[in-house]
Every structure is written in structure tokens, then in C-alpha cells.
Design a protein that fits this description.
By secondary structure, this protein is an alpha/beta fold. The chain has 14 helices and 5 strands. The protein has helices at 44-50, 67-82, 98-103, 130-141, 146-159, 163-176, 181-193, 197-204, 214-229, 235-244, 249-261, 265-278, 286-298, 303-317; strands spanning 36-38, 57-62, 88-93, 111-116, 119-125. One of its GO terms (biological process) is response to stress.
């Protein structure tokens, strides 16, 4: 997206101070209101993967015994129908269909994962307030939303290495919406990229702990990993231990954390996958738990996350 396409930018390249919002999916007919359905393992590909190529699809992982699920699901259904076609909702009972949840690393319910273009792109856990559900849906499906367009431009700038432009756009969004979680997470991510963990921590602390959206969860995970880095040992020592004993899982586990800290995501994932493959129960399933923490920090759509998640699923469900 060019600067001229940025809905926040004025004629001189500055940023507008007024943002207009339009309800997503306006003008839908009554026949188009059936936007909620149940799915199974067999129909998941059609209901979610294929359908998400038309519009975002929310997958609600629930179970009959789950009290918070009973609180969340009606709110989800209401918000999805009010969005009038911006997104669809697919519900999956994990008692009857556990494999998909396992493959996606769902560890507690209720859990909601959003798919777009066949891939998981965002999500949250727990029975969140209705207002947060609406914000989540707007981020996913609000095609007329000027804020989302600006956030997308900021993401593109950050991905292209233009941290200054990304920071400028995030600042403009926060000037109009100080509690915008996506902008807070984006700005905190830029600070983490610069090694400024403390300022990132202060910014992330503005988001309530009850907000478990993927963007802020990823920032929190990165902060936790940054804190961990100061306590990491000597990688050469761990390599020597592994040369002497390839099944020294403790050495490989610690090496994986160092590899991640040094930016070697593939190496970190492979180290943990090795442990899972050899002894999944080692240290109370610590390797798989650490891998899921990495996935959260790296992001749902990160190439290494997607590749390692497929490998993990193959190990657990083959």
C-alpha cells in the first residue's frame, strides 16, 4: 500500500485526525444471516480451510462440560450475525473431534482461532467480553475500516524493514484509539526488535490481562523470552554435552532457547521436535510446551511456526 492509499494520510502526507467507520457486510439479506454452523474432522477442510478463502472463518473449540464455553458461544454467535457476512463461525466439539485442536496446539478451552485464506491468522482464549469479540471480528472482516487499513500499512512497512514508517503509523492510530490492541502490539513489537524490552513491557501492560488475542499474546511471549535470555548458558557447553550424549534432553532443551534468542528459529524448533520425537513425556512434556510458547512468540502465520506445527502434528497424530 502506498502513502497515497493510506486512509490516515492527508494531502501533504501527514495523518488525518478523524476516522470514519462503516459496519462490515452492510446490506446483507435475511437469507444470508445463517453464518453459524457445527463442523467435524471430516468436514473441517470444506467448512474452514476452503470457506476462509471467501471471508474469515472463526473456529470455536468447545466441549459440553466447559462452563466458560457456554458463556462465550452465544456471544460469538450474536457478534458474528451482527457483522452480517464479514466473518463466519464454525463450532467444533473437541470431545467428539479432538485431532484438529491438537494439531493447532489448543491447550485449553474455550479457544477461538481465526482462519483467512486457508491459514490461521489470529485467535484468543477464554470467555472474553462481548466488546472484545466485536473488536476481534472488526480486525478480521472490516473491509471498510480505515484503522485496519492503516494497521495493514504499518505491518507491511515493518515487514519491509521500514521501522520508522511503521512506528509513525502505529502512533497515528494510537493517537485516535489509545486502547487499540493491534497498534499497541505492533509498537511494542518494534521496540522489542530494537532491544528495548522495558518500554515494550510498559506499553504491553496497557492491555488488560483478560485480552488474549494472538497479537498481544505474541508480544507477551517475546517479552518473557527476552527475560529468559539473560539467564541462558553457554551454547558451546550444551553442544559438547550433546556430542557426548545426543539424548541429553536437558542440554538440547537449553540449546533450543539459545537458538531462538539468536534468531535461529528453525534450529530451535528442530531441537525441541527432536526431544518430542524421542521422549514426549520428558520433564512433563516440557519440549512441546516450550515449542508452543515459541509458536506464540513467532506468530501463527510465521513460516517456521507453520512448518514446525505440521511436523509436531505428524508426530502426535500419525
Amino acid at each position: 500500500m502506498s502513502a497515497k492509499d493510506n486512509p490516515f494520510a492527508g494531502p501533504a502526507g501527514g495523518y488525518k485526525t478523524e476516522i470514519s467507520f462503516e459496519a462490515p457486510g452492510a446490506g446483507m439479506t435475511a437469507a444470508e444471516q445463517d453464518l453459524v454452523r457445527d463442523t467435524t474432522t471430516a468436514s473441517f477442510t470444506a467448512d474452514v480451510i476452503q470457506e476462509s478463502r471467501n471471508q474469515p472463518v472463526l473456529v470455536d473449540f468447545w466441549a459440553p462440560w466447559c462452563g466458560p464455553c457456554k458463556q462465550l458461544t452465544p456471544l460469538l454467535e450474536k457478534a458474528v450475525r451482527e457483522a452480517r457476512g464479514a466473518v463466519k463461525l464454525v463450532k467444533m466439539n473437541i470431545d467428539e473431534h479432538p485431532s484438529i485442536a491438537g494439531q493447532l496446539g489448543v491447550q485449553s478451552i474455550p479457544a477461538v482461532i481465526a482462519f483467512r485464506d486457508g491459514q490461521p491468522v489470529d485467535g484468543f482464549m477464554g470467555a472474553v467480553p462481548e466488546s472484545q469479540i466485536r473488536e476481534f471480528i472488526q480486525r478480521l472482516g472490516g473491509t471498510g475500516d480505515a484503522t485496519e487499513a492503516a494497521l495493514e500499512q504499518a505491518r507491511e512497512a515493518a515487514a519491509a524493514g521500514d521501522a520508522n514508517l511503521a512506528a509513525q503509523i502505529y502512533s497515528a492510530v494510537l493517537a485516535q484509539a489509545p486502547d487499540n490492541v493491534a497498534a499497541i502490539a505492533g509498537m511494542a513489537g518494534l521496540l522489542l526488535d530494537q532491544g528495548d524490552t522495558e518500554r515494550a513491557r510498559e506499553l504491553a501492560a496497557q492491555v488488560p490481562d483478560t485480552d488474549t488475542s494472538a497479537e498481544i499474546a505474541g508480544v507477551r511471549a517475546r517479552i518473557a523470552l527476552a527475560d529468559e535470555m539473560s539467564q541462558l548458558g553457554d551454547p558451546e557447553e550444551f553442544k559438547r554435552r550433546l556430542a557426548a550424549d545426543p539424548n541429553d534432553h536437558e542440554a538440547r532443551f537449553e540449546l533450543a532457547k539459545i537458538q531462538n534468542a539468536m534468531g535461529d528459529r528453525e534450529g530451535a524448533a528442530d531441537s525441541l521436535l527432536y526431544i518430542v520425537g524421542k521422549d514426549r513425556g520428558w520433564n512433563d512434556d516440557a519440549a512441546r510446551a516450550q515449542l508452543l510458547t515459541f509458536f506464540e512468540a513467532w506468530g501463527l502465520t510465521d513460516e517456521v511456526t507453520l512448518s514446525a506445527r505440521r511436523k509436531l502434528s505428524s508426530m502426535l497424530f500419525s
